[in-house]
């Protein structure tokens, strides 16, 4: 917290009561000071290099139900969408701040973590030399993926910060959007994380593991404030902000996307359906009819990623956004 003394942008006093209450009711992230410094330095480097930058949030947040956490509530998301999107934007010259759920999928090395190509099936181990070898068949593929991952990290183009709880996520979302806001229109916020809608404030949480006494458990959950509103209106008002809407009923998807656009006044909502989210998505913007991005039957059969198609369209929208300063008429 000492990082924010005298920085009005982080003052809880000026926030809506429910948001300030939320920040006071969840623990501060463990490694916050170190990660905050890295985020600040990353923002400085992006600004110096005039680089286009994307903040990608990825994976699901958890809600602990005990202070000494044994149990928690989780949200659906493996982090595939965020990781694949990070790959696309890194390969297209962007700096990427990857805010991801601990142990979820990572750009490039995600290919080694998938079930059908499990990394460990590539390896053999020589105990005398303490070395692991990759079989010849996969040597090139594995080293390419590792080298890309490592070189983007080493060159400072990819910064990774992880969260686990919804509290940690919202602390880092605030820090990332505020610090990167100096990039103005050069920044995209791509909020693909599946964020918990409810949480248990610290003062209502059991200290120790809740004991089962052969009876049911009733827990009261408070609503998590919707921080997208603050991101768009206060923390990074010039960024091109993209949120996601995940639904299970196709009949309400478009309406929910439109409601989200009308509530937050941001640039793009990407709607997707749980049953089919890897095969098609729909783009809702304030000024254009809904636009669907679909994989072909062949692409579905071949397990081709949809994220490069999403990335390509988004990159175009961002370019148009950057080319139109606020005082000119935009039609994106
Ligand atoms: O990771 P994968 O397994 O590949 O799955 C990807 C996905 C299906 C999870 C992804 O495509 C997706 O849809 N993510 C958003 C899920 C969702 O419905 O989020 P939400 O309704 O909780 O939030 C809507 C939007 O507001 C999201 O962009 C979220 O990041 C943002 N939000 C939500 C709550 C909150 N307190 N603050 C927020 O900013």
TrEMBL record:
Domain DNA/pantothenate metabolism flavoprotein C-terminal: 51-105, 182-295
Signal sequence segment: none
InterPro entries, per database record: CoaB-like_sf (IPR035929), DNA/pantothenate-metab_flavo_C (IPR007085)
Keywords assigned: Ligase
GO biological process, one term: coenzyme A biosynthetic process
Top-level taxonomic group: Eukaryota
Cited SUPFAM superfamilies: CoaB-like
Family membership: Belongs to the PPC synthetase family.
Name of the protein described by the UniProt record: Phosphopantothenatecysteine ligase
Species this chain originates from: Heterostelium pallidum (strain ATCC 26659 / Pp 5 / PN500)
């Amino acid at each position: 917290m000492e990082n924010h003394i005298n920085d009005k942008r982080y003052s809880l006093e000026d926030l809506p009561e429910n948001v300030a209450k939320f920040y006071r009711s969840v623990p501060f992230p463990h490694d916050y000071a170190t990660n905050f410094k890295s985020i600040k330095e990353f923002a400085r480097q992006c600004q110096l290099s005039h680089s286009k930058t994307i903040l990608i949030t990825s994976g699901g947040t958890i809600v602990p139900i005990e202070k000494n956490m044994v149990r928690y509530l989780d949200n659906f998301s493996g982090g595939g969408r965020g990781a694949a999107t990070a790959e696309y934007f890194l390969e297209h010259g962007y700096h990427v701040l990857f805010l991801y759920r601990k142990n979820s999928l990572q750009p490039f090395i995600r290919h080694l973590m998938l079930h059908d190509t499990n990394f460990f099936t590539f390896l053999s181990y020589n105990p005398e030399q303490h070395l692991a070898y990759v079989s010849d068949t996969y040597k090139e593929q594995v080293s390419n993926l590792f080298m890309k991952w490592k070189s983007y990290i080493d060159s400072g183009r990819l910064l990774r910060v992880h969260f686990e709880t919804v509290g940690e996520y919202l602390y880092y979302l605030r820090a990332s959007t505020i610090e990167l806001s100096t990039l103005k229109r050069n920044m995209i916020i791509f909020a693909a994380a599946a964020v918990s809608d409810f949480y248990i404030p610290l003062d209502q949480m059991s200290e120790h593991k809740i004991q089962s006494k052969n009876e049911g458990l009733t827990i009261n959950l408070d609503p998590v404030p919707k921080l997208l509103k603050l991101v768009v209106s206060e923390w990074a008002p010039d960024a091109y902000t993209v949120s996601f809407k995940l639904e299970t009923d196709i009949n309400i998807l478009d309406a929910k996307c439109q409601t989200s656009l009308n509530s937050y006044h941001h640039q793009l909502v990407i709607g997707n359906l749980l049953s089919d989210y890897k095969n098609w998505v729909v783009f809702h913007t304030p000024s254009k009819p809904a636009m669907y991005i679909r994989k072909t039957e062949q692409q579905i059969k071949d397990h081709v990623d949809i994220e490069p198609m999403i990335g390509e369209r988004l990159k175009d929208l961002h370019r148009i956004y950057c080319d139109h300063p606020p005082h000119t008429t935009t039609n994106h």
